[in-house]
């Protein structure tokens, strides 16, 4: 009971903090709309991850001649489209002054693309692979609404609420990545043939079922953005107006000047973190098969368990970020909890074993095929000559590095997004959030290509050494701009020389205020203000 009473006090305290900006009813409406954006973030990441494990067998079933090389284009189409369209969606939202139209349009595009993905068997086999490429491209384009969502989250939360809201947004994103493969596994019993519908013209199988799940969730999400459920409540501008004593939102934007070096530094940091996170996504299974001589089945099972454990750690980390920011400065948390853990994680992956890994040759593989023996395992020395002399990674290294990454990455991306929105201030952030999202997409496009090339041609030592240096240099740079990663300075409204109190601005910045309400912010701009009634 005491716990419930404490939670009730916390909720009342939360309402009190914004009581001069909104009514209790408006607060409920605002947070309902924020939670709708959480669901949208979950849906967008689910749409990407739900087909990852099934997209290759689906493509191979539709067109056996497509090949794995074309699969790379299909996978890359999603982040490429998101990178291109994100700034455009952000600009659109800024231009019309509303996020509803871009969000409904993007979710509708997601739903239509998912329908097409589920009906690919109706297209001619000669062109079906290009239709699959198009569906993945448009799903990626629809997920560009993430920039609009982040922009709205910045405007619909106060500075005090921002960190917790961004943490929940990141948590929804991670849940989408976790649930996607789980849903694909759940529908696997349908098999390749599945259930014939409409006289066998289309089939509900383990590949198309995931697309129909996206269609259902997309339709629900479209309804969530209707006026009866989603109402835009930009409280951030009201908060800034109160602090500045400005009459309009435009005056508020003019009264804040963001630090562009800080914003571009955070965009670069977001790119570097995402680039390094893609490393294990891209090389996970080939790496463990080469280093530990695992079979394909062992690699899939063991990496699945490892990624599941990492996801659980990430969930706990996301939940801990909000209380951590109450005890530590967000910038310190970014440097030491985000970047330093990622740097140490990369260093721990540089092999320190005593001997090279088990190797396999083309001759051994041919003998296995001819004699129908068990799968030949090991590092392919013919394609990767470094297998013969580079020390092998140990299991301790793999687990330690992945553990540190599972903690450092969630902290890093969450705090970067929080600081980014705070530095930009109360102005419309659509285009800037589009640039931030686009940098993450660019890392997902370039990362697999660059890292795969370095790994195959230069080996494990070079791969993890280069990524370690990349992370370390970025960490040093963030230390250099540390003092600039703060909320923008507010220009105080000049006070007219008049004896008529009614003509004074509502909020005046003063040096000392006794018996007056004080509006202090956590970011260091703790100026005392007196509100004149």
UniProtKB/TrEMBL annotation:
UniProt xrefs under Gene3D superfamilies: MFS general substrate transporter like domains
Membrane topology designation: Multi-pass membrane protein
GO terms of molecular function: transmembrane transporter activity
Transmembrane region(s): 36-58, 70-91, 103-124, 130-153, 165-191, 211-230, 260-279, 299-321, 333-352, 399-420, 432-455, 461-482
InterPro entries associated with the record: MFS, MFS_dom, MFS_Domain-Containing_Protein, MFS_trans_sf
UniProt keyword list: Membrane, Transmembrane, Transmembrane helix, Transport
Any matching Pfam family: MFS_1
Sequence ranges assigned to domain Major facilitator superfamily (MFS) profile in this UniProt record: 33-486
Subcellular location: Endomembrane system
GO CC annotation: endomembrane system; lysosomal membrane
Protein name: Major facilitator superfamily (MFS) profile domain-containing protein
């Amino acid at each position: 009971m005491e716990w419930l009473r404490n939670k009730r006090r916390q909720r009342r305290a939360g309402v009190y903090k914004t009581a001069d900006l909104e009514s209790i009813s408006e607060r409920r409406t605002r947070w309902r709309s924020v939670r709708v954006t959480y669901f949208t973030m979950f849906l967008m990441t689910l749409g990407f991850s739900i087909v990852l494990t099934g997209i290759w067998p689906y493509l191979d079933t539709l067109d056996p001649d497509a090949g794995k090389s074309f699969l790379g284009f299909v996978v890359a189409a999603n982040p490429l489209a998101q990178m291109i369209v994100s700034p455009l969606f952000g600009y659109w939202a800024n231009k019309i002054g509303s996020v509803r139209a871009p969000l409904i349009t993007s979710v509708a595009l997601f739903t239509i693309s998912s329908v097409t993905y589920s009906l690919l068997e109706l297209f001619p086999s000669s062109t079906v692979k290009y239709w699959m490429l198009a569906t993945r491209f448009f799903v990626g384009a629809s997920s560009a609404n993430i920039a609009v969502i982040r922009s709205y989250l910045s405007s619909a939360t106060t500075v005090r609420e921002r960190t917790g809201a961004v943490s929940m947004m990141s948590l929804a994103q991670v849940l989408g990545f976790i649930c996607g493969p789980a849903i694909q596994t759940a529908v696997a019993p349908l098999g390749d043939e599945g259930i014939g519908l409409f006289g066998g013209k289309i089939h509900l199988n383990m590949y198309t079922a995931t697309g129909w799940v996206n269609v259902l969730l997309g339709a629900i999400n479209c309804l969530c953005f209707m006026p009866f459920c989603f109402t835009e409540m930009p409280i951030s501008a009201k908060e800034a107006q109160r602090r500045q004593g400005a009459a309009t939102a435009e005056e508020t934007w003019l009264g804040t000047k963001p630090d562009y070096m800080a914003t571009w530094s955070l965009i670069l940091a977001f790119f570097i973190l995402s680039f390094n996170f893609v490393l294990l996504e891209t090389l996970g299974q080939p790496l463990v098969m080469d280093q530990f001589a695992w079979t394909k089945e062992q690699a899939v099972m063991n990496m699945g368990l490892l990624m599941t454990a990492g996801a659980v750690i990430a969930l706990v980390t996301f939940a801990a970020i909000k209380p951590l920011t109450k005890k530590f400065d967000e910038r310190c948390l970014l440097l030491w909890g985000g970047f330093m853990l990622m740097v140490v994680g990369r260093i721990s992956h540089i092999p320190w074993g005593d001997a090279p890994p088990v190797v396999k040759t083309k001759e051994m593989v041919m003998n296995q095929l001819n004699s129908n023996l068990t799968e030949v395992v090991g590092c392919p020395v013919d394609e990767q000559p470094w297998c013969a002399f580079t020390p092998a990674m140990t299991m301790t290294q793999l687990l330690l590095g992945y553990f540190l990454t599972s903690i450092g990455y969630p902290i890093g991306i969450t705090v970067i997004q929080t600081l980014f929105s705070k530095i930009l201030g109360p102005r419309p952030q659509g285009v800037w959030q589009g640039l931030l999202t686009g940098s993450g997409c660019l890392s997902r496009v370039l990362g697999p290509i660059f890292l795969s090339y370095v790994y195959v041609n230069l080996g494990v030592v070079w791969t993890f050494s280069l990524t370690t240096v990349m992370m370390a240099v970025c960490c040093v740079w963030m230390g250099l701009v540390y003092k600039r990663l703060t909320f923008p300075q507010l220009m105080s409204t000049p006070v007219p020389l008049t004896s008529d109190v009614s003509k004074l601005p509502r909020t005046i910045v003063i040096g000392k205020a006794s018996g007056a309400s004080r509006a202090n912010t956590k970011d260091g701009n703790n100026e005392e203000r007196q509100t004149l009634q």
